Write the structure tokens for this entry.
Amino acid sequence: MKTIVYGGHLSKFGLAFIKAVLREQKFEVNTVFIASADRWIKFVRKLKRVDQLPNESRFKKTYQKQTAELEVWLSTNYSQLSLMTIDSANEDASIGHAATSDIILTAAFPEIFSNAVLRAPRLGVINFHPSYLPRCRGAHPIYWTIASREAFGGVTSHLMTRKIDAGPIIARVKIPFDAEQITYTKLYRRAIEALPKVICLTGEKIDHDRISSFLQEESEATFFRENQREDQYVQWKTEDESIIEAKVRAGGAFSVSSEGREYLLFPPVHCVVNSDQDALLDEPAGVILERKTQTLRIKGKKSIVELNYRLAGNEKWSYYWNNFWFRLVLSRLPIFAKRELLL
């Protein structure tokens, strides 16, 4: 089956997808398309809703490094393949190339395909999405699977339509997890691990003339845009502990204190009811009960939340924080600080 791959190689999921597809013998891949640096920049600007990325020169250096690594890997393992960089999948040249294929497989590609692209290959375009569709359609599904407190994650292959992530489902793999233990990093890794199975199942659903699929249940669908800074802000006075836990496990959570300090919050995170809980009833939600070098105990609405933290602006100390012996010595030193209230 003549196959063309459109892979978002700057995404770990997209890069893993490219490599996994090439290992699957069902698909005869002759060309891998990746997006140019300019296309990626346009895409990320749109997701982040900004006119300029904070450091586009660094972004381009990262792009060049990861592209070079992919080129070396392909030349070593699949030297007969063509790797092509394009500014847009919707250009005439790209559409013409797509029309020579039986099928297009794609994941994490930073562009919405036009109808012309979707109609170009003989059997259609299949997208691989890291959620259990129809749950968590749209951007950053790993984050939203945790932040929206889904019961499980997944990876899904589906026929692409003009409605984002809404086309008929071909194959799905469910990723069960413990909601009290799952983190963004863990779920992302498990989604990548599930990719080969989903690709294999997808290949089994394709014969010479048709793709076996079924319609998504619209009543079960959820859709999310790219998470923004406001989505990651923990509001201690109004949010329940279950929401706070989910935000922290999903990654990027932060709080701001009444004194203007910004606390970056990290797993592990636990909600506990201590023996002194009754004595804390009059304490407002968000007050820091105890602060150590790496951990906080914070009064929630119904319990005490224990989690890891770092003060924003301490990036220059990251070398020392990553040194075990430095942390061990520092952990023996008391931190003298009056109680702060997180807003």
User: Anything to note?
Assistant: The first strand starts at residue 2 and ends at 7.
